[in-house]
C-alpha cells in the first residue's frame, strides 16, 4: 500500500526518495515549526543517506547504459522494492557485462535441460555476471532486457558452496541440480510486467497484440506465483525473491502445509514447466502432478484467506466460499484445470474450525 | 531509526527523520523530522532543506518551502 502511495505521490509531487515508510497516525495533528531569520539553527549530525541523491544513479556501467535507461530502472527498483533488499541489485548491476557467445552459462544450461532447448529471449549468467538479449522486436515487446536484469538483481553466487541462489531458484553448480525454476521465472515475469513492461504506443503493433504477447510468457507460472503472492503477501515474496531466498519461501508456505508437500509442489511445478515447454502431451503422471499443484494452491490460498480475515468465522461462510472459489478460478494454472469446489469447501470449514479452536486444548 | 542532531537557539534536539522528498516545484530536497513531542496536541514537525552538493542541511526561510512541506504532509497523510 505504502509503495503505491509513493508512486502516486511520486507522479504527482515529484518525490525522489523516502527514507522511512513512516505514518503519522491520522488521529494526531502535526504542526510544522517555523523559524524566523533571527533563530539560530546549527546541524550537529545528520545521516549520510540524506545526501545521497537518488537522481544521481549509484550504478555506473557503460554496458548497462547502452541497453537501458539505468536511472529510470534504478528509480523503479527503489520505488517498489525495499532498500535493504537491493544488495544483489547494486552489486551485480554495477559490474554486469555483455555475454560473449561461447561463454558457458550454468543458468542457461539448467534452463536448457528443463526446456528441452526451447528458445529464450535472453540470458543471464550468474557465473560471469553477464547477460544478453536477442534483439528481435518480440524480445523487446516482451521486456526481455528488464526480465534478465531482474534475474541479475536477485542473484547471489556462493562460490564456497558451489550454489547459485537466483530469485526462487537454486542451482548446484557441480551437477546442475536445480529447484524452483518455475516459481523463479513466473515471479520474475510477474514483476517485470507489473513494474517495467508497458505497451509501446509507438510500436506498429496494437496494444491488444502486445498484451496478448505478454500473456504467452510463463503463463502458468505467473498464475501460480500470483496465487502465492495473494496468500503470503506480495511484499514478502519480493523481499525473498531479491535475496535469492527459496528456503524462506518454503518456510512461508510451510505455515499452510507440511514441508514435504511444499518441496513436492516446487518439484512438480518445475517438472510441469519442463513438460509443457517440450510441448509433450499430458499423460497420467503429469495429470497427477497437475492435480497435486492445484490442490496445494487451493489449500494455501484458502487457509491464508481464513487467517487474514479475522471475522471469517462470524461471517456468512458462503461469502468466503464464493470469494475463494472466484479468485482460484481466475488464477489456477494449466489451462483446462478446474476448481475443486468440494476441496475449497472442506479446507475452508477445517480452517475455520481450527481457527476457532486455536489455543484451546481438550481437558483430560 | 535515523536521527538528526540539531541545535536550535542553543537548545540541542535529537530529531527522528520521518520523510525526505524532492519537490518538482522548487527542485529542492527536504527532510521532515519530529522530536516525538506533542505541543497543544500537535506533533512537533521540523523541516529542513537538504543541500546534497555541500552535504549540509539548511534552515528553511522561504514561505514557499514551508508550503511545499505542508503540501507533502497533507497529501501523504490523506493518501495513507
Secondary-structure blueprint of this entry?
The complex is a heterodimer of chains A (about 375) and B (about 80).
Chain A (H helix, E strand, L loop, with lengths): L1 H12 L15 E4 L8 E5 L16 H6 L2 H11 L6 H9 L1 E2 L7 H10 L6 E4 L4 E4 L3 H5 L2 H10 L1 E4 L4 E4 L2 E4 L5 E2 L1 H16 L10 H9 L3 H14 L1 H9 L3 H8 L5 H19 L6 H25 L8 H15 L9 H16 L8
Parallel strand pairs in A: 3-5
Antiparallel strand pairs in A: 4-5, 6-7, 7-8, 8-9
Chain B lengths: L2 E6 L2 E12 L6 E11 L2 E10 L4 E4 L3 H17 L1
Antiparallel strand pairs in B: 1-2, 2-3, 3-4, 4-5
Report on this model:
The complex is a heterodimer of chains A (364) and B (80). Helix content of chain A is 53%, strand content 9%. Chain A has helices at 2-13, 62-67, 70-80, 87-95, 106-115, 137-141, 144-153, 181-196, 207-215, 219-232, 234-242, 246-253, 259-277, 284-308, 317-331, 341-356, and strands at 29-32, 41-45, 97-98, 122-125, 130-133, 155-158, 163-166, 169-172, 178-179. Chain A has a 4-stranded antiparallel beta sheet with strand order 6-7-8-9. In chain A, a hairpin with a 2-residue loop joins strand 7 (163-166) and strand 8 (169-172). The longest helix of chain A is centred in the C-terminal third of the chain and has 25 residues, at 284-308. The model of chain A is unreliable at 1-21, 115-119 and 359-364 (pLDDT under 50). Chain B has 80 residues and is an alpha+beta fold. Chain B has one domain (3-79). Helix content of chain B is 21%, strand content 54%. Chain B has 1 helix and 5 strands. Chain B has a 5-stranded antiparallel beta sheet. In chain B, a hairpin with a 4-residue loop joins strand 4 (42-51) and strand 5. Chains A and B meet through helix 1, strand 1 and strand 2 of A and strand 1, strand 2, strand 3, strand 4 and strand 5 of B.
